[in-house]
Design a protein that fits this description.
CATH architecture of one domain: Alpha-Beta Barrel
CATH superfamily of one domain: Glycoside hydrolase 38, N terminal domain
Organism: Asbolus verrucosus (Desert ironclad beetle)
Subunit structure: Homodimer; disulfide-linked.
Distance between the termini: 51 Å
CATH topology of one domain: 7-stranded beta/alpha barrel
Structural class: alpha+beta
Oligomer: single chain
GO cellular component, one term: Golgi membrane
Strand content: 25-35%
CATH class of one domain: Alpha Beta
GO molecular function, one term: metal ion binding
Number of strands: 51
Family: Belongs to the glycosyl hydrolase 38 family.
Bound molecules: zinc ion
Strand order of the largest sheet: 23-22-29-30-31-32-41-38-37-34-35-42
Helix content: 25-40%
Radius of gyration: 31 Å
């Protein structure tokens, strides 16, 4: 008895100790950038530690009362509604497991995520939208605001107005000109002038944002000039703001690409200037995403600024002095995600709209508009050169604007940006701006009764002065985002969510290639195989090609790149850069694949050697990819292929190849024959290719796995049972069709018919035009009616263009005549193909255990080249009672609730859909996943609408100066998933402004965006290859996303492996036990050594998101804990 008690006591003590240690480690991990955290730990964290011990004790007793605890917690989330039919009856054990998953995900005590109540913020953007009238009264001088009154007695000797005039030049890396054209004709001169003009007076300041340009210029500088730049930075005369490669778009960009573009800039700054940006500057992206503050904060930035926000929102926030706030994530219950944000109050970022509310006055202080400089003020009052005679009057006029502006903010510190697009390109502009302003400042500062301290400043100078005056907690908290942007009237910028969709799709394809190339190159580098040592060499290895590819992707994240708002020739330039990036990634992948699959005694390969062709052939920057045709037959029997899975969970999904014969077998990595399907390839109408066939099979791919398969040609008589030929039905076809070799018994019908296709999970019914009519899951049938419709352009002076969507009314359905409907059915996949006006529409049901079979896949090849002023949408109409609510994602990172407002026009109810949108009611959710960023809305209850392409015959007067007529046939891929609640719960309370993907939607989106890379071996005789390379020991769970896993992170001259992890919160209320088994979730921790081959002596460090700030070391074999929605970066040092 005594022994038992002793054991129990020691056991408990051990548990306490272990948990204590875990907490200590976790606690240490909070301390950043300190080499000796123990000192801080002692002094700063003692109180904290005490609290934690108390928490621990509470936790322990909680564990003791686990059952009771779970019961209480589940009670909070379970709806009393028991009428929800549970189609898959859970066993008690499953039910317990489910509940524990729910509890784990929702109640991790140290995590900020809060879903069982709506986290309190002072400003919630959806609530603001509900409240605002969106009227547009004329505010007078400040057209979109009101008349601001000031009393000069508000300031005195002790309480002076502090003015920071921040000179800036906005340089688009491609818009009217290509990045290179701009550089040569403008940007180069701007920066070169800076080098001369800033040192002339130490009081002069300047900020710069775009590192793509800065790095080009750097290459042109000599050592002495570089020293001047470094000195300007050291003196705090020059500040690099944000420090991204570009100022990224925030609507269409994927969060991983945003990290890429920021990291590209930050790494450059680190290596060349040893510089870490502190403040963010986004003055021209067309609407602001809540993902941006998360990423910037994790990169170590402390403040950010933004400009393009709906004028009604600006006015509302300005009227209550809420333009500066702590931007908080929707789900954040404790403020861990807060980012200090400044919103510019007025219409633009040019000088007339930045000094104060009256553009007519402010314009007079843009000295580039002095007579004779080629620019003038549209308000017809020109600036005056400042001299002794007029300085008093002019200073008071300007000061009045500064004072009025300050009334919109909580502090006495005023920010007055001084610049515009491509400003300061001529030395005289520097002289007139800096000299005239200095005279004004000198007068203001020496005239004590004005009670002002005015000066040039950097952006961070402004924020520091502000923080000195008021503590951060004095500022309100805000959650939500700032879409859809309107700059005036009903000019909603929702057209650019879809403009130039061909390149938007290309962006996602390039991102998937970069992720595949980065991960496989890292695996090859860490493998220790022959050839693994030189590949990451910057000069002679593959790193250079990958680095160039990253630059192309980063460049396209610019707010005139992925937005589709550049001139035709600039779009072509982006396209060509992305095409060569894609080709470079393919080359890197095939090379790394060869290294990984080669035997121990293989020789070091030549850098340019081609071992595999990637089965994704791109002949031109503006053409849809083609497939290789695998030509095999009795003479050349064998084709070796390899498949790579760039995701960190194992996948069993359908892959397809084009082969020249219908008689084949497929062998897996153990060279066993596996099931495969041969299907015809439809060319025009019901005509099928007589020379090529589609071969499909289910590839069984481990996490980050590289696996080889073999396709063998057979004799016709061999016909193994594993090879199945699809059955073919053709409706609405008069006359015969020629069956391809190997196929017989084609059903041809001259009449139309409804029909149903199904896989192991769902059945899809189609109407007699071959369009989706309903989806059936388990025993429930949900009507899902698919159609296409078009918007026209309204007949007013201002019309839709690259940016603006100004429709002429509701969308009009596209009339479809009798059309030939081609249906194939087989054990691995079934599909229907119809040629409609403007769209070749294919719906596929895969039959695999993988994420591709969780819904239907829609492929639309859209061609609207022969239309004019035409915008094409796809609609899905259901009976889901979503009322006026729908959900769209931000940058593929998070989901938020939208509301359709009748007080707003159609174009205002359109939102970006970077990766998904859904509508749901109490029981059913329909999710549309997209392979390209596009615009979306739900304009009627139960309906989802996605804009596919836009062709617009005019400019929309926002500076682009051209129509959008460069449409190309574009392939869009969507997955549609319908789910019913299998448990009567909901992830978040009704009023919560967040949404979350279901498990099925999340994995289906991940796999849609990261398809398997298909590699075809160039040498058919290949004796040395191994059948697979599998390095992952343990999988993380599908909720962990490896956003980046790459080589080439240089710290103190040494190369390291860097990786970025995100943990997604998943709404598990729609997950049945089968799904949870197929796609297991993590328990909130990962073990890096299970993912990567780590040598003895390897070290793991936590870092900031762009790998600039090294933080604490982490035990490489230990478990890393992460909260849902958290993103963390790490460095692996070898
Ligand atoms: Zn711009």
């Amino acid at each position: 008895m005594r022994l038992k008690r002793a054991v129990a006591l020691i056991g408990s003590a051990l548990v306490v100790l272990i948990i204590f240690m875990i907490y200590s480690v976790k606690d240490l991990s909070e301390i950043t950038g300190k080499k000796t955290p123990f000192i801080d730990f002692e002094s700063l964290k003692l109180v904290n530690m005490e609290n934690r011990i108390k928490q621990l004790e509470r936790d322990l007793s909680q564990h003791g009362n686990e059952v009771q605890d779970i019961r209480i917690q589940i009670k909070n989330i379970l709806l009393p509604n028991s009428s929800t039919h549970n189609s898959l009856k859970d066993s008690p054990a499953d039910s317990r497991r489910f509940k524990s998953v729910m509890t784990d995900m929702l109640y991790e005590s140290n995590c900020p995520i809060q879903l069982n109540f709506v986290p309190k913020t002072n400003i919630q953007m959806l609530e603001v939208y509900k409240r605002l009238k969106f009227d547009n009264p004329d505010g007078g001088a400040w057209k979109q605001g009101w008349k601001i009154e000031v009393d000069e007695k508000d300031w005195n000797r002790q309480n002076k107005l502090k003015v920071f005039v921040v000179p800036h030049s906005h340089n688009d890396p491609g818009w009217i000109k290509t990045v290179e054209e701009y550089y040569l004709t403008q940007t180069k001169h701007i920066l070169s002038n800076m080098l001369v003009k800033l040192p002339e007076d130490p009081r002069r300041k300047f900020i710069w944002a775009e590192i793509s340009y800065f790095s080009m210029w750097w290459e042109d500088l000599g050592e002495d000039e570089r020293e001047v730049v470094k000195r300007l930075i050291r003196n705090n005369q020059l500040e690099i703001v944000t420090g991204g490669w570009v100022m990224n778009d925030e609507a269409n960009s994927h969060w991983i690409s945003t990290i890429q573009q920021l990291t590209e800039g930050h790494q450059w700054l680190q290596q060349n200037l040893n510089y870490t940006p502190q403040s963010g500057w986004s003055i021209d992206a067309f609407g602001m995403s809540a993902t941006q503050p998360v990423l910037l904060k994790e990169m170590g930035l402390r403040n950010m600024l933004m400009q393009r926000v709906h004028y009604s929102v600006k006015k509302e926030l300005a009227s209550k002095q809420l333009l500066e706030f702590r931007w908080r994530q929707l789900w954040d219950g404790n403020g861990k995600t807060d980012m200090f944000t400044h919103m510019m109050p007025f219409y633009g970022y040019d000088v007339p709209h930045t000094c104060g509310p009256d553009p007519k006055i402010c314009c007079q202080f843009d000295f580039k508009r002095l007579p004779g400089h080629g620019l003038h003020c549209p308000w017809k009052v020109p600036p005056q050169e400042i001299n002794d005679k007029n300085v008093a009057r002019r200073a008071e006029l300007l000061l009045d604007q500064y004072r009025k502006k300050s009334k919109l903010f909580k502090t006495n510190v005023v920010l007055a940006p001084l610049g515009d697009d491509f400003r300061y390109d001529h030395p005289t502009e520097w002289d007139v701006q800096y000299n005239n302003y200095q005279k004004l400042f000198d007068h203001m500062n020496s005239n004590l009764k004005l009670n002002v301290q005015a000066q040039f400043g950097t952006l961070t100078d402004y924020f520091e002065a502000l923080h000195k005056e008021r503590k951060e907690s004095d500022f309100p908290t805000l959650s939500g985002d700032f879409f859809t942007y309107a700059d005036r009237d009903d000019h909603y910028w929702s057209g650019y969510y879809t403009s130039r969709p061909f390149y938007k799709r290309m962006d996602r394809i390039l991102l998937s290639y970069i992720r595949a190339a980065e991960t496989i190159l890292t695996l090859a580098y860490l493998s220790g195989k022959p050839g693994s040592s030189w590949i990451t060499d910057r000069e002679v290895g593959l790193e250079k090609q990958l680095s160039d590819a990253r630059k192309a992707l980063s460049l396209f994240q610019h707010h005139d790149g992925i937005t589709g708002t550049a001139k035709d020739h600039v779009v072509i330039d982006y396209g060509k850069k992305m095409l060569s990036a894609l080709t470079a990634c393919q080359h890197v992948i095939q090379h790394a694949a060869h290294i990984l699959l080669s035997g121990k005694d293989a020789e070091t390969p030549d850098k340019n050697a081609l071992f595999y062709n990637v089965d994704d052939v791109r002949h031109s920057h503006d053409a849809i990819a083609e497939r290789y045709q695998i030509t095999i037959g009795p003479e050349l029997r064998t084709k070796r292929i390899a498949i790579y899975n760039s995701l960190t969970f194992s996948r069993e999904e359908v892959v397809t190849f084009h082969v020249s014969t219908p008689y084949v077998e497929v062998l897996d990595m153990k060279r066993r024959r596996i099931k495969c399907q041969i299907s015809p390839i439809f060319e025009y109408g019901s005509t099928m290719s007589q020379t090529k066939y589609q071969l499909s099979f289910v590839a069984d791919m481990p996490a980050l796995g590289l696996v080889s398969y073999v396709i063998n040609a057979l004799w016709e008589y061999e016909s193994p049972t594993e090879t199945v030929h699809a059955s073919i039905k053709i409706y609405n076809q008069y006359g015969d069709v020629q069956a391809p070799g190997g196929f017989s018994g084609i059903e041809v019908s001259p009449s139309a018919s409804e029909f149903t296709l199904q896989n192991n999970r769902i059945a899809a019914s189609f109407n007699n035009l071959g369009l989706l009519k309903a989806l059936k899951i388990a025993t429930n049938t949900i009507p899902v009616h698919l159609d296409f419709a078009k918007y026209g352009v309204r007949q007013t002076a201002e019309r839709s263009g690259a940016y603006l969507f100004l429709p002429d009314g509701d969308a009009v359905p596209i009339q479809i005549e009798n059309t030939i409907v081609n249906v194939i059915e087989g054990p691995i996949m079934s599909s229907v193909t119809v040629q409609l006006p403007y769209v070749r529409h294919i719906v596929t049901l895969y039959n695999s255990p993988g994420a591709d079979s969780l819904g239907i896949e829609i492929e639309n090849i859209v061609d609207i080249q022969k239309t004019s002023n035409f915008e094409l949408v796809m609609r899905l109409s259901t009976n889901i009672k979503n009322s006026d609510e729908f959900f769209t994602d931000l940058n593929g990172y998070e989901v938020l609730k939208r509301k359709r407002f009748h007080k707003l026009p159609i174009q205002a109810n359109y939102y970006p859909m970077p990766s998904m949108m859904y509508v749901e009611d109490k029981t059913t959710r329909l999710t549309v996943l997209t392979g390209s960023p596009l615009g979306t809305s739900s304009l009627r209850e139960g309906q989802v609408e996605v804009m596919l392409d836009r062709r617009l015959n005019q400019d929309d007067n926002l500076g682009l100066g051209q129509a959008v007529l460069d449409n190309h046939p574009t392939k869009h891929i969507f997955r549609v998933i319908v789910e019913q609640k299998t448990h009567s719960c909901q992830a978040a309370v009704d009023e919560h402004p967040s949404g979350f993907p279901t498990l099925a939607a999340f994995v289906a989106s991940q796999t849609l965006l990261n398809p398997f890379v298909r590699l075809l071996r160039t040498e058919d005789e290949d004796a040395t290859s191994q059948p697979s390379y599998l390095s992952v020991q343990t999988e993380f769970g599908v909720d962990f996303v490896v956003a980046t896993l790459r080589t080439g992170i240089t710290i103190k001259g040494r190369d390291h492996v860097g990786f970025v992890l995100q943990r997604q919160f998943i709404d598990v209320c729609f997950s049945d036990r089968e799904l949870l088994k197929r796609f297991p979730l993590s328990q909130g921790s990962v073990n890096v050594s299970g993912l990567l081959p780590t040598e003895v002596g390897s070290k793991l460090y936590k870092t900031s998101l762009s790998f600039l700030l090294m933080k604490n070391e982490i035990h490489i074999k230990g478990d890393l804990l992460m909260c849902p929605m958290e993103i963390q970066a790490f460095i692996l040092q070898r």
